[in-house]
Amino acid sequence: MNATVKTGKKHFPVMLNELISIISPLYSGTFIDCTFGQGQYSRAILKHQGNKVIAIDRDKKTAFNAENLKEKYKDRFYFKNIKFREINKINIDNKDIKGIIFDLGYSTNQIQDPEKGLSFNSRGKLNMQMGLNNFSAHQVINYLDQKDLEKIFKYFGEEKYSKIISKKICETRNKKKINTEDLVNLINKSKLNKNFKIHKSTKIFQALRIFVNKEISELIYGLINAFNTLPVGGVITVVSFHSIEDKIVKFFFKNYSQSKNLSRYLPEKIKEKKLFKLKNNKPIFPSEEEIKNNPPSRSAKLRYATKINDSENFDIFIQQFKYLLDIENLSKKI
Ligand SMILES: C[S@@+](CC[C@H](N)C(=O)[O-])C[C@H]1O[C@@H](n2cnc3c(N)ncnc32)[C@H](O)[C@@H]1O
After folding, report:
1. Ligand 1 centroid from CA 124, angstroms
2. Is domain 2-109+215-322 in CATH 3.30.70.20, yes or no?
3. Within the chain, which residues score under 50 in pLDDT?
4. Relative to the CA of 33, which ligand 1 atom is closest?
5. Ligand 1 mean position to 189 CA, how many Å?
6. pLDDT tens-digit readout, 207-245
7. pTM given for the model
8. Is CATH 1.10.150.170 the right assignment for the domain spanning 134-212?
9. Where do the domains of the chain lie?
10. Which of 86, 194, 210, 276 gives 20 to 30 Å between its CA and that of 217?
11. Residue 268: Cβ within 10 Å count
């Protein structure tokens, strides 16, 4: 889940060497870092004199890290506090763009930030907003109905105990508003006498983070807008941290790629329109050494593709994940 891990004061970005070896053949140019965070990727790219970086992050707290880079790199660096689905709102000279980079998930700073309440170790009122949100986990847990909660937990958390947990939530909130500790306790009670390899609350908290931050539509429209922003010859790279993210990225690259079409039933005309060249069909994983030094990197997958054609629409892509977008839209009831 976290791409950046804190040990003392140092942060380790995941698969930085692998990322640099993918994009360095395209130096000198402009790179868009869609998930600036602590700025480790941006900093590494800016080490090359001929590169510029346009960085985006939805968390306004990352603007502080951006100020340091701005001071050092002046007009080679630009930062905007927006969501990456809004990438097309930045006024840029597209022809210079060589690569667009996504390092999904959260930095450890965010996970540890008590104000954000992203972790099941947090205390007090539920929140989980990364930045630029419309509602919090408090509203989701305390106001959505049982069936809706069940769907969110099942599809965004892949939680087997979705039904019983959502039932317990609704029973509990009849008596009091549910906070973070209450939620962890009632999840524990719903999974009584069972042993789990991961913390019992992991999946529910993942589901809530995805829902509150609209991570599904962010990723889908972020990828589409990145594609439309990138000139032919440029590369899109994505580091993902859970299976739902990877499923979306994999479909986007593979379905529109040269090497393989996932859907055999598509009309020939659509199949002919190859948008990407894929060097690897399989994702790249962190090395054993990286996992040893930075255990949370173990769930990371890096996929990348080079744009070879423009496209008019991405209806098939959107349609493929409509069932997830529909669940995200349950937030309209809040
Ligand atoms: C894993 S961290 C990135 C770490 C970064 N690569 C580094 O080198 O420090 C992910 C960052 O992406 C940001 N983020 C996640 N979703 C976003 C979105 N939809 N739009 C903009 N930023 C987003 C988070 O706020 C977080 O700071």
Report:
1. 25
2. no
3. 1-9, 259-261
4. 6
5. 33
6. 999 999 999 999 999 999 999 999 999 999 999 999 999
7. 0.93
8. yes
9. 2-109+215-322, 134-212
10. 276
11. 6
